[in-house]
Design brief:
Layout lengths: L27 H28 L2 H8 L5 H34 L3 H14 L10 H21 L2 H19 L4
Helix pairs in contact: 1-3, 1-5, 3-4, 4-5
């Protein structure tokens, strides 16, 4: 006669642990997505001096001075922008690299974070109007994470993330196996 509830308190009647699931094999989509995220982080490093050079260009300063802002106010704005840009760029690059590493390890939360960052990065397309090298780095800085996220949500990638979770859970609950 089956038990009154659906719980089996003696799931492993032989006293042995279940066989370990095989270690998941990372598909090429995840590897390529990882490298695209690394390339996006490298591009972010490159775009910092490009953006700062644009802020200090005479074209930009003449454009801003034409709006009625004084030179001393513009100098203060540029100084604050430089410090803020460097501060947030360093934090952003560090987080991006960390997320990319956890994606490569098969952590789904990192894939979700990368997706949110890629969607939020679409806002940066407004910077493409600056023209020149700034526009190129801006467009590439948006497209690389978007392409990575598309690869990370393909079926082989999703299967890898699910298998990685199952493998980690098995190892967590069966430390000696």
């Amino acid at each position: 006669m089956p038990p009154a509830n659906n719980y089996s308190y003696n799931a492993y009647s032989s006293g042995q642990t279940p066989a370990a699931p095989p270690a998941p094999v990372r598909p090429k989509q995840v590897d390529l997505g990882f490298w695209l995220l690394i390339a996006a982080a490298a591009l972010s490093v490159i775009s910092i001096p490009v953006g700062l050079a644009w802020l200090n260009s005479t074209d930009y300063q003449d454009q801003v001075l034409g709006t009625g802002i004084t030179q001393s106010d513009l100098d203060a704005i540029i100084s604050i922008t430089i410090v803020t840009t460097i501060f947030f760029a360093v934090i952003s690059i560090a987080i991006s690299l960390l997320v990319a590493l956890f994606i490569r390890k098969g952590h789904n939360w990192a894939r979700i974070v990368a997706t949110v960052f890629a969607v939020l990065g679409l806002i940066n397309l407004t910077g493409a109007g600056a023209g020149g090298l700034v526009a190129v780095t801006t467009i590439l800085g948006v497209l690389l994470p978007v392409a990575a996220v598309i690869l990370l949500w393909m079926k082989p990638s999703t299967e890898f993330f699910n298998a990685s979770k199952a493998y980690r859970q098995f190892k967590k609950f069966n430390p000696g196996a």
